[in-house]
Amino acid sequence: MRRGLFAILALLVVVPTAAAQDQEYVLGDDDAWKLPQEVDPASPEGQAIAIRLALANGEYERVNQLATSWLERNDPNPFRAEVLLARGDALLGMGDEYKALYDYEAVATLYPGSDVFVTALEREFDIAVKYANGMKRKLWGIRWIGTDDEAQELLIRIQERLPSSNLAERAGMELADYYFRKREMRLAADSYDLFIENYPRSAQISKARLRLIYAFLASFKGPEFDASGLIEARGAIRALEVTEPATAQQIGSDALLVRIDESIAAKLLVQSQWYFKRKDPIAAELCLRRLIDRFPRSVAAREGAALAEKVLAQLPERIRATAPDYKAFLATPPPEAAELEGRPEQPGIDAPARPGSEPPETSPPDATAPLDPTEVPPGSTSLPPQASPLKRRGDQP
Question: φ, ψ for residue 347 (rounded to 5)?
Fold first, then answer.
């Protein structure tokens, strides 16, 4: 009899305990755990839950209709941001991402404190990436409208709305890569420079530094055009030699610096020739002085010294008296020839120097030609064999 009584008492203790384990509690506004109240399916909250459930089941057409009707009846409402996101997701699932952007923008603009704010920005980022990679938007059922402006605007807004976040970092790199692919090198350089400044500890910092050099170099179109990109590139290369010396050595920073100097020297020579043709020998001779003073090892310096005889012939005597001895400069053998004279040839004797040492004794075969960094494949993350890192902005040749 006693055994039966004990069994009944044990059952009475276990059953309430199991029932209590099946109950769910929620944390209330007063930081107290409470049993959740049942939601009336006819209430706005219950309808919002039904909309999310239909979205999870992939009923996009139905979600679009229910959400539109709900939004018309419930303004304002604390669940409005969630319903806007649900309708945007439904439109996205139906293949109309451009209309979905209106709902995502409404969430980002009107409800920045909602739980779905970051989710809406993530949706916008995914659409922006597709637009940046060439996807067009629909008009009359056909995708033929360009979306370059929308892609740029979305990527910029994401960085403004969620600064210093992982999503903003991804948006910044995507925007810079977009400009780089489109060959808008000035904008690409600004974007990569801003990325380096905002995210110095990013996992993509090395890529940003290399692409910054690419963009600066590609902005130089020849000796007849602005050479500020070369000066910026030289500063970026030298900065890379300090921050990542192994990467600088791998990309051949010394050889690239020599090519940059050759291109700047070629620009000074072109400037001198232009002034000489315009009957301005004083300005022409001044450019030649700068050329020989700054880049005495360049091929352009020797060509400029040969031009100096014609320029000096048109100058007054008092100016000719202060001019350098261009004939003596021409008579002097090039630096590499003077250093190699009298010594036997040795394999590798003229190999480029390591980063931090003097420039290589011999110039690359194409050192006299203007740089053409646009030959670098857009998808590459390392410079060509003759590329190199530079100094910061403001460095003068």
Answer: -65, 130
- CA distance linking residue 79 with residue 68, whole number of Å: 13
Read off the pTM: 0.72
Measure CA 48 to chain center.
Answer: 40
CB–CB of 168/157 below 8 Å? no
Please give the span between the terminal C-alpha atoms of the chain, in angstroms, as a whole number: 106
What is residue 218's three-state secondary structure?
helix
Nearest alpha carbon to residue 97 among 75, 125, 117, 116: 125
Q: And the tokens for 250?
A: 């791998």
> What is the residue extent of each domain of the chain?
44-161, 204-334+353-397
* CA-based nearest residue to 190, from 169, 204, 211: 211
At the fourth CATH level, the homologous superfamily of domain 44-161 is Tetratricopeptide repeat domain (1.25.40.10)
Cross-strand pairs, 138: 143
Q: What is the mean pLDDT of residues 317-328?
A: 87
Residue partners of 29: CB distance under 8 A and separation at least 6: none
Distance (Å, whole) CA 103 – CA 80: 11
Tell me the per-residue pLDDT of 167-194, one tens digit each, with 9 for 90 and over. Answer: 999 999 999 999 999 999 999 999 999 9
CA atoms of 270 and 205, how far apart (whole Å): 37
**Contacts within 8 Å (CB) and 24+ apart, 181-186:** 181/378, 182/148, 183/218, 183/374, 185/215, 185/216, 185/218, 185/219, 185/229, 186/215, 186/219
Buried b / exposed e across 161-183, counting CB within 10 Å, b at 16+? bbeeeebbbbbbbbbbbbbbeee
